[in-house]
Amino acid sequence: MTSMIDMAASKAEMKAESEKYKNSPIGTSPYRYGLTIRLDKLSLKKLGLKPGDVTVGEKLTVVCECEVSEVRQNNTKSHDESNIELQIEKMCIEDGSATDAVSRGIAKAGR
Q: 11 φ, ψ to 5°?
């Protein structure tokens, strides 16, 4: 597995965002809007989870298989925007950090 990359915005990036959107709550989190996954009741059921199984602030490892469903690039005089949209098709969630999950996987493989 490729090493994990911290997706938090730097202080400079956050400052630029807050200046760009002065009177908006945008830019108050170091993590961009598109990095959030919201799982509904059916998705939780498929994963064998209930809201009471986790607590706010708890760390989980999420492994997904995705299909690229859209690629966009928009360049104008005033801005340059690029993004891709991923459709999650398969997913698993485990307690703990990615390091813990990899260790559990190695241990299972050694059985």
A: -60, -40
* Greatest extent of the chain over all pairs of C-alpha atoms, in Å: 59
Same domain, 68 and 103: yes
User: What tens digit of pLDDT does each residue of 37-85 get?
Assistant: 999 999 999 999 999 999 999 999 999 999 999 999 998 998 888 999 9
pTM, full prediction: 0.68
* 43 shares its domain with 23: no
For residue 62, the enclosing domain spans 38-109
Same domain for 47 and 91: yes
Report the phi/psi class of residue 34: left, alpha or beta, with left for phi > 0 and alpha for psi in -120 to 50: alpha
How far is it, in rounded angstroms, from Cα 9 to Cα 17?
A: 10
| Residue linked to tokens 């485990």 | 94
